């Protein structure tokens, strides 16, 4: 355990306005699609309209002759060099996966798969020529339904695999020694609740479409890409396309949102790289929104079969989880591992004594799924928080009382869970008490009772979600034990420049999270230099030569700590020089507010003066290397476990099915906070995304496998008019696994809010005999549930 | 090719354009005004919002030729003499942006909203920004920014 840092913080904790804003609010931006490189050609993709078909012929004659077209590539052209797109997380030794070419060679397995690429002088000419490519398909049977695909004898998404099942992964608390046998618990239970929930398919829908530019006209090939993962991308491109890693430089310039959707090695990146290499000219590809929705990876898409066992007093005795997870047509970078990230979270904040998680990953002829904000953990949290409400209803208990009965109490930390994780800290009582007070919980319950009594057509529902999550992905040893292909460390360097200004280089690459501001605050405190004197650099493998990038709420808890450690190393180097300058012993120096002082004297020197002295190097200690730079690589000891209580009140119009969020209150405990402004913003955005899942969003394919929700006309990203203002507050229980006590906040809101909203809707409707509304809870679905219930289940 | 004369951010331009060229393509590809961005193609996201003769338009839904003889203001022309426009300042003050991709459009729409209604209620702000999507902020701080700009009296331009 690491002690929480006691040194006084001046910057950390301050609501600093963001450094990065100025460029963004004046349009002085470097989005990938803004970039133009001399001689650059433009790429447009030809995509399959069929969800499953053999490619019988591709006629590119006419396209090749079209104005401005310099090259047309088909899968046959690239077959020998494109390799197979990487899956870095084979979850079992016998995991099955089809080859995953960037460009289909002889068969397509989902609608939107790339079958040819046009490279032309202008983007318009490239797109025009797409229309001239004549592809003939021999259509094959498609399998789209997850449940059907998992059955014996199902139509096969990939006939050569002989099955749609990619892998089955099990965690059993009895086998792991972290709990007892769940089947025993279910057999002996006084109450069991069985439910099946659907985590519908979602689309990340970051507002910046994906774009990639490749310039092969240097010794190193440079790729600019709208990616969350420049470092991983560099390595994976090297391995996939047989390019020496040292010949690649990847830059993530300004990146317009990701939410996991840009945590990928994409076909478009590989194709643009190969086209640029072949032409020896720079090439750019920018997708349209419909291409993005069709072919950028999707998220969620699971069927959860759940059994909760309990005693009549409300004590939960076991939780059994059977998942079917829709991989879509291929395994992307971490597709297969996403459900596994949830495996450790179904027990949430509770002291369940037994637990079994079984997940079956299944192929269908749809766009492949992969990380989407929360990745596995929102699904788990939804399941357990919905089930706790169902159990409370069954036992006629107040749902918060049921939770209190089962959760880990603040004096029981550290606590080893039934899933085998050690939660270092938390205080669920404190966050809940604060949230209930802000929410006016008791008053709302009274109003609910009144509305029920008077048969108000607009019913009030109250939804609870007391969540936790595992953040800071991840301790490398844990990743190794889960067969993930890499570690979870993060790197930073801190350089004091001659003038006393500071450059901080971080391997974690921001795309909206505010690293420039937060890392400046951290380093300003460590070095005692002004916030304004610090420049944070990231997102370029030349500048940040090592990194594991940004996802899984890892940036601050690992990358921020790396910057913290590197800054402290700079201070220690500076101490040696300062001692020399002050003709004192190192050990006699105190360092505070950027100044070294000889204890008990007024002799001092500022760290900026030490920097200049070191730069000049005229008079340094013997054998002292003239540099005030330092690097640190941090591998986390443990995950961090933010938690919180989210409360949602909805008004449901029982005549129309329309749901209105009347109030939403959340109290999150993300540990110590570096910048409350940024934390609050992350919570707002996260909550909004979770509400999107609860009420609005669903990726829908028709029976032939065509994406019906193929534009933002059909895929309902919530607008300002769809959302309320949220009441947010915090409690602070520091994490014990890092010196700042921080836990991470990127995914918390999304994880927590979906079950809060759906619990509220079901709570409003429960007196009508309704115990579920499938997501998204559209007015039609709510209305339908009411109709079905009032017809006694007949309609 | 059709010749157009357009004033963009105070500079007069004269160009031959394909009749099918969108205004946003003209701004980005011909004038290098990359502050204005494209997010969707279906006029849902509003990232490409600019002002045409002082009113907000989605520049992906207009042809460049429709801007002939008219005045366009983009996010790059909103501040003057290094002074941020009050709406830009408010976005910064209230943390109304995260990734910043929707921000140019969101700011241009907010300026237009305040020009029309200098003292909007929260609900009027939310409805007024309905045509601009943000995936990062949950809109709460955007609403706050518009409120701040309104109360500073600097919304109208």
Please give a structural write-up.
The complex is a heterodimer of chains A (795) and B (157). Chain A is α+β, with helices and mostly antiparallel strands. Chain A has a domain at 21-28 and 489-634: Aldehyde oxidase/xanthine dehydrogenase, molybdopterin binding domain (Aldehyde Oxidoreductase, domain 4, 2-Layer Sandwich). In chain A, the strands form 7 sheets. Chain A has a 7-stranded mixed beta sheet. A 5-stranded mixed beta sheet of chain A has the order 7-15-14-13-8, sandwiched between helices. In chain A, a hairpin with a 2-residue loop joins β22 and β23 (595-598). The model of chain A has no long low-confidence stretch (mean pLDDT 97). By secondary structure, chain B is α+β, with helices and mostly antiparallel strands. Chain B folds into 2 domains: 2-77, Ubiquitin-like (UB roll), CATH 3.10.20.30; 86-151, Orthogonal Bundle (DNA polymerase, domain 1). Chain B is built from 5 helices and 5 strands, in the order ββαβββαααα. Chain B has a 5-stranded mixed beta sheet, sandwiched between helices. In chain B, a hairpin with a 2-residue loop joins β3 and β4. The chains are: A alpha+beta (795), B alpha+beta (157). The interface between A and B is large, with 55 and 54 residues.
């Amino acid at each position: 355990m690491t002690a929480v840092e006691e040194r006084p913080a001046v910057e950390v904790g301050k609501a600093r306005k963001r450094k990065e804003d100025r460029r963004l609010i004046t349009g002085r931006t470097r989005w990938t699609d803004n970039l133009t490189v001399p001689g650059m050609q433009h790429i447009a993709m030809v995509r399959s309209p069929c969800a499953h078909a053999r490619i019988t012929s591709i006629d590119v004659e006419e396209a090749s002759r079209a104005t401005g077209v310099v090259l047309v590539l088909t899968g046959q052209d690239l077959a020998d060099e494109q390799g197979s797109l990487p899956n870095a997380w084979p979850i079992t030794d016998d995991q099955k996966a089809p080859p995953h070419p960037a460009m289909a060679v002889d068969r397509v397995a989902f609608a939107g798969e790339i079958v040819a690429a046009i490279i032309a002088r202008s983007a318009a000419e490239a797109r025009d020529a797409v229309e001239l490519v004549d592809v003939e398909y021999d259509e094959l049977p498609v399998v789209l339904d997850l449940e059907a695909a998992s059955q014996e004898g199902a139509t096969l998404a990939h006939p050569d695999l002989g099955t749609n099942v990619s892998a089955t992964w099990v965690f059993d608390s009895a086998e792991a020694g972290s709990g007892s046998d769940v089947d025993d618990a279910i057999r002996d239970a006084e109450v069991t609740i069985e439910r099946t929930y659907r985590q519908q398919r979602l689309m990340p829908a970051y507002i910046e479409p994906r774009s990639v530019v490749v310039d092969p006209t240097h010794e190193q090939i440079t790729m600019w890409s709208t990616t969350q993962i420049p470092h991983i991308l560099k390595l994976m491109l090297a391995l996939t396309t047989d390019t020496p890693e040292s010949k690649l430089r990847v830059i993530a310039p300004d990146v317009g949102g990701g939410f996991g959707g840009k945590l990928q090695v994409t076909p478009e990146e590989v194709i643009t790289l190969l086209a640029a290499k072949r032409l020896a000219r720079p090439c750019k590809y920018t997708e349209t929104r419909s291409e993005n929705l069709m072919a950028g990876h999707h998220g969620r898409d699971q069927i959860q079969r759940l059994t909760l066992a309990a005693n009549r007093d409300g004590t939960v005795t076991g939780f059994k989880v059977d998942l079917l997870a829709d991989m879509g047509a291929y395994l992307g970078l971490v597709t297969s591992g996403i459900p596994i990230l949830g495996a450790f979270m179904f027990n949430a904040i509770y002291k369940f004594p037994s637990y079994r998680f079984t997940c079956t990953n299944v192929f269908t002829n749809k766009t492949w799924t992969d990380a989407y904000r929360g990745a596995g953990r929102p699904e788990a949290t939804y399941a357990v928080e919905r089930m706790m409400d169902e159990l409370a209803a069954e036992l006629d208990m107040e749902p918060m009382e049921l939770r209190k009965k089962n959760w880990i109490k603040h004096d029981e930390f550290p606590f080893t869970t039934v899933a085998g994780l050690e939660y270092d800290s938390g205080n669920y009582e404190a966050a809940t008490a604060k949230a209930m007070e802000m929410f006016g919980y008791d008053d709302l319950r009274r109003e609910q009772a009144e509305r029920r009594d008077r048969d108000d057509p607009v019913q009030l529902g109250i939804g609870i979600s007391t969540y936790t999550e595992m953040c800071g992905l991840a301790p490398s040893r844990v990743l190794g034990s889960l067969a993930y292909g890499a570690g979870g460390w993060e790197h930073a360097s801190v350089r004091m420049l001659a003038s006393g200004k500071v450059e901080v280089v971080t391997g974690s690459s921001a795309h909206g999270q505010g690293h420039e501001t937060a890392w400046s605050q951290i380093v300003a405190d460590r070095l005692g230099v002004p916030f304004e004197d610090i420049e944070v650099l990231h997102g370029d493998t030349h500048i940040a030569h090592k990194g594991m990038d940004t996802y899984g709420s890892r940036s601050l808890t690992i990358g921020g700590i790396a910057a913290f450690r590197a800054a402290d190393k700079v201070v220690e180097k500076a101490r040696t020089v300062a001692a020399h300058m002050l003709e004192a012993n190192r050990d006699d120096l105190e360092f505070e507010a950027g100044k070294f002082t000889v204890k008990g004297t007024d002799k001092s020197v500022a760290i900026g003066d030490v920097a200049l002295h070191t730069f000049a190097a005229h008079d340094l200690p013997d054998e002292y290397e003239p540099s005030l730079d330092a690097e640190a690589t941090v591998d986390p000891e443990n995950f961090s476990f933010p938690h919180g209580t989210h409360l949602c009140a909805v008004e449901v119009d029982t005549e129309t099915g329309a749901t209105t969020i009347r109030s939403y209150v959340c109290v999150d405990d993300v540990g110590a906070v570096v910048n409350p402004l940024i934390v609050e913003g992350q919570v707002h955005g996260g909550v909004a995304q979770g509400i999107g899942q609860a009420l609005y969003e669903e990726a829908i394919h028709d029976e032939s496998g065509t994406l019906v929700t193929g534009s933002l006309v059909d895929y309902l990203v919530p607008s300002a008019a769809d959302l309320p203002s949220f009441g947010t507050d915090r409690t602070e229980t520091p994490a014990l696994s890092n010196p700042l006590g921080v836990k991470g906040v990127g995914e918390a809101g999304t994880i927590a809010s979906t079950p809060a909203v759906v619990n509220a809707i079901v709570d409003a409707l429960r007196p009508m005999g309704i115990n579920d509304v499938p997501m998204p809870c559209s007015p039609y679905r709510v209305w339908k549930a009411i109709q079905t219930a009032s017809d006694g289940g007949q309609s | 090719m059709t010749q157009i004369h357009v004033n963009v951010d105070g500079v007069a331009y004269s160009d031959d354009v394909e009749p099918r060229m969108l205004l946003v393509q003209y701004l980005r590809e011909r004038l290098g005004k990359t502050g204005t961005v494209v997010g969707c193609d279906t006029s849902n996201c509003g990232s490409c919002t600019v002002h045409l003769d002082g009113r907000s338009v989605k520049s992906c839904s207009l042809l460049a030729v429709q801007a002939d003889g008219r005045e366009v203001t983009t996010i790059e022309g909103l501040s003057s003499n290094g002074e941020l426009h009050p709406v830009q300042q408010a976005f910064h003050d209230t943390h109304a942006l995260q990734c910043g991709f929707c921000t140019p459009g969101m700011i241009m729409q907010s300026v237009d909203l305040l020009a029309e209604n200098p003292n909007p209620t929260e609900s009027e702000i939310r409805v007024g920004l309905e045509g601009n999507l943000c995936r990062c902020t949950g809109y709460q701080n955007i609403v706050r920014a518009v409120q701040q700009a309104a109360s500073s009296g600097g919304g109208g331009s």
